[in-house]
Amino acid sequence: MSTAAAGAIDHHHDPTTTTGIPNKKLLMWAFLASDCMFFGCLISTHLIYRLHPPPGTLPARQVFSIELTSFSTFILLMSSLMMALAVNAIQKGNLKSLRWSLLTTIFFGCIFLGCQVYEFRNFVFEKHLTITNSILGTTFFTLTGTHGLHVLIGVIWLTGMLIYSFTGRLGEKDAIDVEMMGLYWHFVDIVWIVIFTAVYLLEYI
Amino acid sequence: MSAPATTPPAEHALEESKFGLFVEIAMLLAVITGLELVTVYLPFMKWLLVSVLVVLSTVKFMFVIFYFMHLRWDKAFCTILFFIGLVLAGGTMWALLKLFGAEASKPLSSAMMDPPAAVLRVS
After folding, report:
1. Would A65 be classed as within a structural domain?
2. pLDDT digits over A89-138, tens only?
3. Cα–Cα distance measured from residue A81 to residue A65, given in angstroms and rounded to the nearest whole number
4. Do residues B73 and A12 touch, judged by C-beta distance below 8 A?
5. CB contact under 8 A, A8 and B69
6. How many Å lie between the alpha carbon of B23 and the closest alpha carbon of chain A?
7. How far is B120 from chain A, CA to nearest CA, in Å?
8. Do A204 and B41 touch (CB under 8 A)?
9. What's the DSSP call for residue B115?
């Protein structure tokens, strides 16, 4: 029986697996749960050294640019919207909409990475804050650099999926692959939501 | 890989309406980010501002995971699985902050600059 005759594909449940959840989705959720612990440790390490800064530490408020970081946050939130629309598009079998949504997500992801590169360059060359010359530099660059690396991996994954969509082998039945990628991208966004508050905004209070 | 299941047309209508919902949520997230920015400049007590920031970022976090990441429509097991990771991460963060927040855990140079209250009383 064709899927068209029976109704649309149910992308949230899979009765053929033991859990009723598509295996790929379950794998991604398990990975994201473990990544939470990874970022949790990096964020708490940064917070610990911000609570007890060694004498002579440069105040982070003098280093950070809240305007640039707020812009990056907004860009990443909008990329999350485009990613959600991309998943919605493939679940309806709309390849044209999927491609535009993916392209916009990649574009926003690249802007975010560009902002991060600019911020890092500014910190190193203008503010003389490096990964080795202070505890603030060490914890800050390790945390935000790891997040940036996650964004870069996401952008590469998105680009690969965009190219794959032109081969004609990507259809509604493969929505789970795009959804997995979407889960990863949204996770990068929620990690940034926490970093934005814990690392940047708390310094301004 | 297992074949995808099918759903009746009524549920398919829900998929159609998600577009507007996602746009509304994204706008709401942008507004909350703006509110967070304004909050840090308000002349209130520090604990109050920190609490407001934590609540606002938690709201953003929840909106993304339940709507953009589809947890609202997925089986509860996905939520449980992710929250196990979140609780473990949160617990680790809480434990680390408590451990290193103790007086005896302060870096030596920092502790010397800022002596504990007991030392101040003796001197």
Report:
1. no
2. 999 999 999 999 999 999 999 999 999 999 999 999 999 999 998 888 99
3. 25
4. yes
5. no
6. 7
7. 19
8. yes
9. -
